[in-house]
Amino acid sequence: MKKKYIYRFNPHTLAYEKVEATLGDRLKRISTTVLLGVVLGVLFALVAYYFIDSPKERMLKADIAQYKRAMNELNKSVSRCNAVLADIEERDSAVYRTIFGANPVSEAKRKPMPQDYSKLGGRASGKMIALTQLRVDTLEQRLYAQSVSLDQIYKMAGTKEQRMATMPAIMPIKKNQCKMVSGFGMRYHPILHYRRMHTGVDLTAPLGTPVHATGNGTVVVAGRGQNLGGYGVCVVIDHGYGFKTLYAHLSDVDVQPGQKVNRGTVIGKVGRTGLAQGYHLHYEVIQNGNKVNPVYYFFNDLTPAEYDEVLEASMNENQCLS
Asked: What is the distance between the alpha carbons of residues 236 and 209, in angstroms, rounded to a whole number?
């Protein structure tokens, strides 16, 4: 192959003269060509990096998309489980434990132990995993607490007959021998002359009217009990399972401390001892250390109409007798 030469017209000699390329010219041409190639290569690399996925990248993106779909489905499943568990917890507190007179499970027992989720990373994917892990941990703890609660309820159900026999369930004075004059709540005291919490109900009856135990139990106080001076002569019965009852302002008692009594047993007689006005019985129900409205436990010997009448009378805000 013949070597190519470059000729240039010389206007002074009016002839074409052969141009001999210098080393600098050759280097310049080579540098320009190389530089252009480098620029084009970089541009192509950038385009390929940002706009063209490699097979490995396409595979990773597909895996990430599948992972996101799986996490979303997992969170939806956790939400459905939370809804079902919330319904069971509501029944546990509002129905099952109410039937057996037990305290509901505290919210503290349903919360998970604090965990360190920082090891899962601070990026979006790490935060999603941490949030899902927290929800799963919470669900797991709530399930455990509910399982323990159901075990307790199962044991309570096994002693249902005994519990029902001990629970206060009747009026302490026969319904045709007394009248409700003051209920549970804020009332004006006739002797102290100021409004204060009336922690029981007052039932008027003639002097000497028999007073009955409202459930099976053991007498713990019979007479003038310590720190019960305002109640006068009284009887306190421990029914077990968190229940106690108090019968105050009696004229006399027919039981002794430590004596076992059954529902309906006569334990004393109506009087007006202590801070009382008029012959009446002050009756209280204590559940797990808290004094509750005794009217809610008058369900064994009253018809629905009679119960409504007693409940309405107990809600009248008037002066109590003790």
From this structure: 18
Side chain identity at 191, as an amino acid letter? I
Question: Pseudo-torsion of CA 51, 56, 57, 63, nearest 10°?
Answer: 150
Q: The whole model's pTM is what? A: 0.53
Query: In a 3-state reduction of DSSP, which class is residue 91?
Result: helix
Structure tokens at 134: 């927290």
Q: Are 257 and 220 in contact (CB under 8 A)?
A: yes
pLDDT tens sequence across 272-287: 888 887 899 999 999 8
Cα–Cα dist 291/244, whole Å: 9
Alpha carbons 181 and 150: distance in angstroms, whole number: 41
Q: Identify whether the C-beta of residue 133 lies closer than 8 Å to the C-beta of residue 120.
A: yes
Residue whose structure tokens are 């927290």:
134
Backbone angles phi and psi of 313, in degrees to 5: -65, -35
Residue 240: phi and psi, rounded to 5, are 80, 175
Residues 6+ apart with CB under 8 A from 230: 274, 275, 322
pLDDT tens by residue, 19-41 = 776 777 778 888 888 888 888 88
Instruction: Provide the sign of the torsion angle of the four alpha carbons 307, 318, 205, 259, taken in this order.
Output: positive
CA dihedral 122, 78, 144, 112 (to 10 degrees): 30
> How many other C-beta atoms lie within 10 A of the C-beta of residue 40?
10
Summarised one tens digit per residue, pLDDT across range 162-214 is 777 888 889 899 988 988 877 776 665 555 555 566 788 888 899 999 999 99
Residue 322 has pLDDT above 60, yes or no: no
The answer to whether the CB of 249 falls within 8 A of the CB of 234 is: yes
Q: Give the angle 236-202-100 at the CA atoms, nearest 5°.
A: 55
Query: For residue 238, what is the DSSP state?
Result: E
Q: Answer for the pair 163, 100: CB distance below 8 angstroms, yes or no.
A: yes
pLDDT reading at 260 higher than 70 = yes
Residue with tokens 């990026």: 123
Number of H helices, E strands in the chain: 7, 14
